[in-house]
Amino acid sequence: MKFRYLLATLALAAVMLIIPMQQENAEDVQNGFLIDMGNGITHWTSPTGTDAVSMAETYAKSLGLEFERKDNGILRIGEMTEHSVGSVLCSWHLYKWSGTVWAPTTDTSYSTGSIAWGFYPDGILPTETPEYKAAWTSFRGSSSSSGISQSYGTKEVKTPLEWYKTYRTGFVDSSIIIGGKYLYHTTYGESDTSGDRSHAFLYCLNRTTTETLWRFDLSSGGGQYPVDRDNGYNITSPLIIGDLIVINSATTHGEKGQTTFMCTYLLDRYTGELLDTEEIAHDPPKNERGMPVWSGRTFINGGTSPVYDSGAMYFGTSDGRIVAYSVSKTEGLDLLWEFAPNADVDPDGKYIGSRGSFYYYSPTIVDINGTRILYMGNYEGYIFAVNATTGELIWQKQLIALYEKNKLHPRTPGAVDLITYIGDGRIVATCTDGGMSPIMGHIVCIDAATGNGSGSADNYWRIDGVTQGTVPVGNSDMIIYATPGQNKCIDSDPSFDSTGIYRLDKDGKTVWRADTNLIWSRLTVAEDVVYMSEYSAGFFDDGGHVLARSIDDGSVIWSVKLEPYSKDSYSMVAPTIIEGKIYAANDYGAVFCISIVEGKKWDGGGDIILPGGFYHWSWALLIIVIIAALVALVRYY
Description:
This protein is mainly beta. Helix content is 8%, strand content 38%.
């Protein structure tokens, strides 16, 4: 009897050892049905029925999406219908979950487990899995660059923050990119914790333990190039495509007298292995003095943050081109098309072209009347609408033309940066004087199909002031950070009369306004909450917070200070919202996780080790059982 008691106790202890490694709801992990639109947008439900095509049709129609069959497969779901971008065919593929990876299949019968339909070329797998049903794969979450998270945040947080991780390799200025348990970001610059200039790196972390799994030297391409110089701060964000990750580096390569080039790197996102390198030339049209012919500012940064849509990766280049690439683990990177705006100069030597430098901002891709249209703005003040399938120009328009009125950069027209589709066939573009800290700017709303307003109007509306972080929130409304600016950009009214967070309707009318410190990050929306990061803990005595505000009235739901920090801890990183956790970063060289889990308080030092603790209820029960077993052992033996 005594021996049986001891065996039973130890057996229970063994069971407790297993429990923490399992999910709270094993059924959720085993049985899921995914529709992956191939552009960062996904839809999950529970599988019902015995046929994968019929399940997709029922689910798609419940979401209000068009559906069209093709033989024993799928031709169309929503806007995504089988088509080619250059030489790449993108179509609907079926995958079944093997327990560890998605496996392509043509067998549409269903009995159990998880299955997925994904709009991809051959060889690309969905990023999300039955265990991790949310991801943030690009700069603004999807190819539409909306900043809308399909996951959920939290209306309650604990401090100290769940965890933070600091680096001695510089600032963290890229978006926090997440796929499964893997978190990706870059560093570059000079950290307060070291004082030394560092190469730029792409890091991969385990976001549950903060363990660094690998890092890749962006400045040298993993050691394949000598480092000439770094341009900017490698603030472009990486892009997840299935089990791959792509990033554009701002490091100049090439010897004196040669064309300067930067690099696009394709890596295995699990191991950090370099799979392919594409050298991106910086070769703008030049005058007889060897200077760019255009009037706007020039950034020697290679490519902007990329997006993935319909089987192709898209980004702008610092020498003024928009490019589309195929991406494959076996074939690497391959140029599908490029669009170069005109660079005309009149007989008097005056630049009359529209080509200019593209910097930092990712493209926005939206389906307009059945055509996938790519929108992108440059530092010549132009916005371009390009057919994403063919690379052909649909329309272009100069939205800002300051030139001699430009207070920061005289003779520069200005820049069109963030472009947001708000619905109702309208896009909103933020325009600035082109400065890193602009003092002039405006926001303008135009028709997505034509670039104009209603009738013969130039636009639907335009408001003077410097704006940042436009994010749509439904009903064609949007939330932005705005300030009047120090100088008027346009002569006419209306203008923003005070600094703060605004909710505007589709006609540019203020729904509500709330006071706030300077916000220089993009904004992120999840469910009915908008999240934002204040610019600096040193710039304002009470600054350096991440805030959650109601999209209904702008009220603060919670606000937490990012620690560690310094007086120069500027934060330009939009919060990433995944499954109740908020990931943020700053120029202290730190990444943060905010949640309902309480972590270890910052002690003013550098790197820390995560605190111990009970991460699962079974751990506490396990210890109790083991103690009981030991007591029994001592008592009866």
